[in-house]
Every structure is written in C-alpha cells, then in structure tokens.
Amino acid sequence: MNYFEKLFSLAGKTALVTGGSSGIGRMIVEGLVMAGAHVLIVSRKREACEQTADEINAIGAPGHARSFPADISTQDGVASLVAATKSEFEALDILVNNAGRTWGASFDSFPYDAWDRVLSVNLTAMFTLIQGLLPLLKAGARAEDPSRVINLGSIVGSQPLGNNAYSYAASKAGVHHITRILANELAASHVTVNALAPGPFESRMMAFATSDAARRARLIASVPLGRLGIPSDIAAALLYLCGAGGSYVSGAVLPIDGGKHVSIPTGASDDE
Ligand SMILES: NC(=O)c1ccc[n+]([C@@H]2O[C@H](COP(=O)([O-])OP(=O)(O)OC[C@H]3O[C@@H](n4cnc5c(N)ncnc54)[C@H](OP(=O)(O)O)[C@@H]3O)[C@@H](O)[C@H]2O)c1
After folding, report:
1. Is the pLDDT score of 219 beyond 70?
2. Strand residue runs (E) in 11-165
3. Which residues are catalytic?
4. pLDDT digits (tens, 9 = 90+) for 95-112
5. Which of 203, 208, 238, 257 gets mutated to test ligand 1 (max ligand atoms within 8 A of its CB)?
6. Å from CA of 122 to ligand 1 middle
7. Is the pLDDT reported for residue 269 higher than 80?
8. 138: CA distance to ligand 1 center in Å?
9. pTM here?
10. Is the dihedral of CA 217, 221, 226, 231 positive or negative?
11. What are the structural domains, with CATH classification, of the chain?
12. Considering only CA atoms, which residue is closest to atom 34 of ligand 1?
C-alpha cells in the first residue's frame, strides 16, 4: 500500500449513500468507489439507481456500486431501508445522508406543507437513519478506525440566505446542529459524525438557477472563487473525512463553497 492509499483507501469498506443516484450524491458514490468501497445507492427511482450503478461500475474502479432503492420520506420508508440493510449486512462503515429536497415560495405564500415535505427528507430521515443503522455502524467501529457518518448540510444552513427556500434553509441549519450533537454522543461508540456544507454545484435541484444564463452568471459571481463546484471538490473532502486521515475529526461542518461562507453578501443571490 503506498502513502496515498494508506491515507485514503476505502478498500473493503461498505457504504450507504442516500440520494446517490444524481448530483452531489453521485459525485460521492463515484469518489467512494474510486477509493475501493462497496457502495449502496439509495433513492426512490430504481431505474436511476441502477443506471448510476452501471455507469460507475463501467469506470473499472476498485470498488463497486449497487442499486438499493428506497423512499426515506416516511417513517415506514426509513424502517424498510434499515431492515433491508440489516438483512444483508452485519456492519456498515460509512453512511452518507445526502438525499434532499427543497421548496421555494415567497414568504407570504409559503405553504404549510412545504415544511414537512422538506424536513422529512432533509432532517427527520437523516436522524432516523442514523438511529436505525447505528448498530451496524458500531459493529465494525474501532478507536483507530471509527465508522463515519457524513451529512449534507449547505451554506444556507450557516448564512441567513433564505432566498424563498425557508424550510430548506432551516433544515440545513438543523443538519449542522444535529451533526455536532451526534458527533458528541456517538464518539464513545467510535462513530464520527461530520457534515459537508456545499455552495453551488450543478444538480437537478440547482437546475432552476444554473440553466438560465443570466441567473447562472449571477450565481457564479456570488462565489468568491468565481466558479461552481465540481465533482472532485466533493470527492476529495469526502475521502479525507472517510479515510484513515479523517479518523480524528468529528463534529466538523466543512464548507465547500468557493469561500462563500466568509464573503459579505452584497445583495440577493440564488440559493443552494
Ligand atoms: N447542488 C447544490 O448546489 C447543493 C448545495 C448545498 C447542499 N446541497 C445538498 O446536497 C444534497 C444533494 O443535492 P443535489 O443538489 O445533488 O440534488 P439532486 O440532484 O436533486 O439529488 C437529490 C437526490 O435525493 C434523492 N431523493 C430525493 N427524495 C428522496 C426520498 N424521499 N428518498 C430517497 N431519495 C430521495 C433523489 O433521487 P430520487 O428522485 O430518485 O428519489 C436524488 O438522488 C442535498 O442534501 C442538498 O440539500 C446541494
């Protein structure tokens, strides 16, 4: 094993990635498979999970991706996913809570339902999945090589950039906070809990802001480093937190946002 493999190899590790069929989740799955992990791709659409798994497996990376569809927006959906995982695996090394949804409407018309619809996936499912899969996460965890939970937060979870996505922004602030709480509570079980807080990346969720040329230009101009995020920005951060090199890090909320979280907002910008 060379020096880089010692720090970042995930050979022999099993990972589950919610929302792994598209966007940032797909970037995460690819990074994990490139590092040698066996990765379960969870999302509602079976065909999308299968297609992503096939495409990633065709790269010829040392790891392997597999379709593992589930809808995590309900208590029963999360329970079925937990049961399906437990029926096949005795241990889980990496859990990435990435599935997410958003809702945009003006303050005056923001619907009551848009709170539960967003929080159920972004926050409730994240918490409940960690709760349900904890026995598997604990099973293979050791002090020198803890199991890892990575939650997807957002820059809007740290900065008051509402941009009409009120329940989404609140859900992401909740993700950051629960990440710190669980990092503290699960440390004794040798499970680290960290969050990634991305700025703007191209994805289905962000298509409303990136497909229109003028909006896209405004979005890019809002990022101090002057570009949108790319897959290696996510994959490298993830491999750091999941590899040997990240085994002493817990409770971190890592901004991956081109410096946006330290910029001073000068006006309205599209949200992430
Ligand atoms: N893109 C950005 O700029 C950005 C910035 C900051 C944070 N984030 C966060 O990054 C994460 C990924 O977002 P993205 O931008 O990559 O969006 P995306 O392309 O829309 O991906 C969302 C994923 O979640 C899955 N999903 C949605 N509802 C689900 C459910 N009920 N059960 C299971 N899976 C479900 C979707 O697949 P199905 O439709 O098949 O279920 C899809 O794979 C989210 O947590 C988002 O908040 C994104």
Report:
1. yes
2. 14-18, 38-42, 64-67, 94-97, 147-152
3. 168
4. 999 999 999 999 999 999
5. 203
6. 9
7. no
8. 26
9. 0.97
10. negative
11. 3-262 (3.40.50.720)
12. 43
